[in-house]
Amino acid sequence: MTNKTPDIWALTDDRAGNRSQCLGVADALGIDYQIKEIAYGPWAALPNGLLGASFAGLTPDSRLGLHPPWPDVVIAAGRRTAPVARKIRALARRDARECFLAQVMDPGVGRGDFGLLAVPRHDGGGSGANILAITGAPHQLTESRLAEEAGRWAARFDDLAKPWIALIVGGSTRKRAFTPAMAIELAARASKMALLAGGSLLVTTSRRTGGATDALIEAITAPAQVFRWGEGEVEENPYHAYLALADAVIVTGDSSSMCSEACAGSVPVYIYAPPALTAPKHGRLHQELYQEGYARPLSGEMADGGYEAWSHAPLNAAGEVARAIMDRLVP
To answer: How much is the pTM?
Structure first.
């Protein structure tokens, strides 16, 4: 790589967690970059081993946006972006241009095409010169971003008693259901914590909360500000603001990105992770967060009392990944 400022593409798709990871790393580089929005067709469901280095999984419109001049660096996250990144590299090399690929999460195949694979420890992924093991998922919630969100939103919740406890609710995953019974239990535990502390809840649901949303909201007994996912056309989603303003955070454990973003600040974090909702890889992440002091489980004594005022270092692997990219770009 020469000493010129590299041209960078960030591949972003429709998965919010993947997008946040990709853009978090791109932001942390501190260099201007282009966002390349990609959308998938039916072939994207094929294993990466069959897709190889190709655009076959993309819609025709997405393919039109990927053309020369090719970038010096591609940043992407998630399985489905990997064949696209590998194809860009192949086309760049055909045109006598080197292209460095930085991928968050293991692509499964073609590992040698990637200059850097940032693999969360809870996902495994082995070892190698191009592999960087990280804790959790990179994201965009830096200290300055949180401060900006806090400034924009603080006055909107002045009528709510403090402490403010953010309740960040995900939901069902591909193989595990977030049931109304779970929603009721979560609402009861969060409400009890807020009431014992003399405070309020800042609640946000997600697309995956689905049919459990009504049960959750109806079971909340503490004073609360509630954002119901799907109302975004008339109301801005306060998810980031809740994390910026909260004196403590409760988050469901069904998303690596949500758990990591919940730990972006330094306030207490509690993870709600009933066994029936918790995939093994998420369980491994939770244990890592507990052991490293970033979070505690919302269970046992934690579920029966008010929150305890403790703190932790902010968690965001984006800076670590960005430094690893630059170390490999600069001889």
So the answer is: 0.92
